[in-house]
């Protein structure tokens, strides 16, 4: 028997006349900048975290900008928009060269390496002013190298994780590369330092799946979510989603819709009624 392919998205927003389409990734909160210092006398770097003081929060758009959406033309749309992955995100952490730092010689580059990190974290090179705009995985995200060259200019990375109530960490180091031979300068590392994030849920009702009997699949969500409609499409990237016509029934304080498991593959989500 062919089972229906069901992707459980937690929910997605419907349209709103007051909604804005964002063309940048917002940065709720102030900058949190590890200050990097290059030491010419020892050809090494150090990092000062004393100005950070707080932990960055990964926040989904449904919490930071509940009526807004991202532009489908932008590269972070699939990661961050509530109609796609709807990941929580932050741009508060970045890297900055200390104003009192020595200037590296022409044959020296600064590199940043992620030594370890929570598996669910994604890290991206973000630049909304570039042409085209940048949302490029780095630091081991999507199979990329765990190290990247840094120009020394102020740089805020984009960090993502699924919405929830989790804490995340990543451990980094900054080091020097000799461009004459392409090798890391011995004993140039800053030593390891840790960046921390907290995470928040996005407030969407949980959509669950079960198989109550052979040949059937059942989708359920909280009965308190009266302003949401179950919709489906053939693919996750579809632009048109259709409401499921089967009327939901109430079972143990949850709405439930039962479907034929042998039907054509579909993906499902809950859409907020506006």
If you had to describe this structure to a student in words, what would you say it looks like?
- The chain has 274 residues and is an all-beta fold.
- The protein has 2 domains: 31-199, no CATH class; 208-272.
- 3% of the residues lie in helices and 40% in strands.
- Strands 2, 3, 6, 7, 9, 10 and 12 form a 7-stranded mixed beta sheet that branches. Strands 4, 8, 11, 13, 14 and 15 form a 6-stranded mixed beta sheet that branches. It has a 4-stranded antiparallel beta sheet with strand order 16-17-21-20, with no helix packed on it.
- The longest helix is centred in the N-terminal third of the chain and has 4 residues, at 61-64.
- It starts with 20 loop residues before the first strand and ends with a strand.
- The relative contact order is 0.22.
- Mean pLDDT is 89; it is low at 1-17.
Pick out the low-confidence regions. 1-17
Number of domains: 2
Largest sheet: 7 strands, mixed
Strand content: 35-45%
Helix-strand string: EEEEHEHEEEEEEEEEEEEEEEEE
The total of beta strands comes to 22
Helix content: under 10%
SSE topology:
Elements lengths: L20 E2 L12 E5 L4 E5 L7 E3 L2 H4 L4 E2 L6 H4 L7 E3 L3 E4 L10 E10 L4 E6 L6 E4 L9 E4 L4 E7 L5 E12 L4 E2 L8 E7 L8 E3 L5 E7 L5 E6 L8 E2 L5 E3 L2 E7 L6 E6 L2
Parallel strand pairs: 1-5, 2-7, 4-15
Antiparallel strand pairs: 2-3, 6-12, 7-12, 8-11, 8-13, 9-10, 9-12, 13-14, 13-15, 16-17, 17-21, 18-19, 18-22, 20-21
């Amino acid at each position: 028997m062919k089972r229906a392919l069901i992707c459980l998205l937690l929910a997605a927003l419907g349209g709103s006349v007051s909604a804005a389409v964002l063309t940048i990734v917002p940065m709720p909160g102030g900058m949190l900048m590890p200050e990097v210092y290059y030491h010419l006398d020892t050809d090494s770097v150090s990092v000062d975290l004393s100005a950070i003081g707080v932990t960055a929060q990964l926040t989904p758009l449904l919490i930071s900008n509940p009526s807004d959406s991202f532009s489908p033309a932008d590269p972070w749309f699939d990661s961050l928009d509530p109609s796609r992955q709807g990941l929580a995100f932050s741009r508060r952490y970045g890297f900055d060269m200390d104003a009192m730092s020595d200037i590296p010689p022409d044959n020296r580059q600064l590199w940043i390496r992620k030594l370890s990190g929570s598996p669910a974290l994604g890290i991206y090179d973000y630049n909304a002013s570039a042409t085209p705009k940048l949302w490029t995985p780095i630091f081991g995200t999507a199979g990329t190298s765990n190290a990247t060259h840094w120009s020394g200019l102020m740089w805020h990375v984009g960090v993502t994780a699924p919405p929830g109530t989790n804490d995340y960490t990543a451990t980094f180091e900054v080091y020097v590369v000799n461009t004459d031979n392409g090798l890391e300068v011995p004993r140039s590392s800053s030593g390891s330092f840790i960046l921390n994030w907290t995470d928040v849920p996005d407030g969407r009702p949980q959509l669950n799946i079960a198989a109550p009997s052979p040949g059937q699949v059942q989708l359920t969500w909280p009965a308190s979510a009266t302003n949401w409609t179950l919709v489906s499409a053939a693919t996750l990237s579809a632009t048109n989603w259709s409401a499921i016509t089967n009327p939901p029934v109430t079972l143990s304080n949850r709405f439930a819709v039962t479907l034929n498991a042998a039907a054509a593959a579909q993906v499902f989500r809950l859409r907020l009624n506006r």
